[in-house]
Amino acid sequence: MSEAKKKRSMYAVHFAIMVLIPVVFSFLPCPGVVTPYGMKVLGVFVSLVYGWTFINLLLPSLFGAVALALTGYGSVQDVFLAMFANSTVLMMMFGVLAFAAVEQTGAGDWMIAKLLGSSLAKKNPVFVIEIFFVIFILGNIFGLVWFLYFALLPLMYKMLIKCGYGKGDKFNALFLCGCLMFGQIGMSIFPFLGWSLMTVGTMTALTQVPVATNAYMAMMVLLIVVGMITYPFFMKLMGCDFSKLAGVDVEATFGAAMKSEGGKLTQAQSLAIWSVVIFVILVVLASMLGAKVPALGWLNTTVGVLGLMILLWLFVCAMKVDGKPLLDMGKAAAGFSWDMLILIAVALLVSNALTATETGISAFVASILGPVFAGLHPLVFLLAIGAVTIVLTNVSNNIAICFIMINIVASMYNSGFSVNITAAALVISVTSVFVAYLTPAASMPGALMHAATEVNTSSTLYKMVGAMMVYGFLLLAIIVVPYVLF
Asked: What letter does residue 57 receive in the DSSP assignment?
């Protein structure tokens, strides 16, 4: 049998298995409090992971949307309306288009060329990686997640390809996931803002024990510092090649983007960059000062990030240089990754459906974990909470898992179990977000990593993220254990 026939044959086999998985799950007995509906949704989730792994991104995603409707979630129309009514999906769609002018004008290549051509990068390519880590940390602290995801990440994909890293290279997976990991830690650094406000606030409300803010923030800063020192060594341990970053011929690779004399920005490139800078400033100011300045408050609540994205999109389409718009919508539409959009829409919807109250799955997980944790030493309990949360957030909705773990900790503490609440809040805050890229349904960043098919493959991501889960657990233990013991 020829190689082509073998591939077609295996494709048919994989497709048949993907279709059969939800059918089989619908006939399996329901464990514990899991409902028949929950088993059907679980079957759709498993079939999606199988299809994304062995077929492609688009076909399993479309199948999963239809299969979810057959579970009793609603009609096919209800499913697709729910998919594209999600604010995250809308922001992705408009964000990709709004920031596309940076790439089309060559402004993105210009910035990357300046970074890779710097003496710092030539001295040690690790500095380049650390710079991106810092950008992601600061970006998440200031609420610029959408800029990082839809403007910066696509530029980084191009950078990796132009530097000579092939599809599925270990370096691609660990570098990109590392940036996301440090960004997520940055998002969790303040117990009174963002993600940590939710986790710390819930823990405090349930236990009536205030979290030690100074200790929490000190541990988070230490986590970032130790992580930034050790992560490059972890990458080298996993076999990553850093030399391509240092050895890239910047002029030959990025010369087309540096057209002006002396490598200065062209007018189009300058406008593209400054439009994004103004967007970023407005988002940060509206978020931080919206409660104090009425105009910024209106901008934050009425226009919002999505509205600002649309305004940016309108600007780059309308603004012309030498008779040409900054953004050619024909090119942007032709290059738009619909498979990525549908993948993210389906992954988010199925993940939310999986952990909804009606499935009984979250309650079942909690009923199993509670008794298991009850007999552990407080420190071992904290480490176990961290390990289990890391694993579960890679296969399920991280928000649901986060609240399950918070409720388990609070319930045991209120029953007399002596656990350090500050350490517990930090462990759950971090482990529920910082390494959640194993499957597309694990998190929004996880979906982005699997959808970046020009630089990543699912098989490489499974291996590298698996190793990252171990690294992340050890990194957390290095910080938490001394705090609890001393």
From this structure: S
Residue 166: DSSP 8-state: P
Where are the strands (E) in 303-353, listed by range? 320-321, 324-325
Contacts of 453 (CB under 8 A, 6+ apart): 57, 167
Residue 283 — very low, low, confident or very high, per pLDDT cuts 50/70/90? Answer: confident
E-strand spans in 123-174?
none
Report d(CA 123, CA 118) in Å as an integer.
Answer: 9
Beta bridge pairs of residue 320: 325
pTM equals: 0.80
* Residue 238 exposed, middle or buried by CB count within 10 Å (0-12, 13-18, 19+): middle
Beta strands in 242-343 (DSSP E): 320-321, 324-325
Mean pLDDT in the chain? 86
Cβ atoms within 10 Å, residue 242: 17
Q: What is the pLDDT of residue 486?
A: 76
- pLDDT band for position 258 (cuts 50, 70, 90): low
Dihedral angle over CA of 290, 292, 298, 300, nearest 10: 0
Tell me which residue has tokens 């000062």.
289
d(CA 50, CA 415): 41
Helix/strand/coil percent split, the chain, to 5 = 75, 0, 20
Q: What is the structure's pLDDT at 261?
A: 47
User: Is the Cβ–Cβ distance between 389 and 402 less than 8 Å?
Assistant: yes
Q: Of 114, 204, 208, 214, give the one whose Cα is nearest residue 155.
A: 114
CA–CA distance, 171 with 348 (Å, rounded to integer): 27
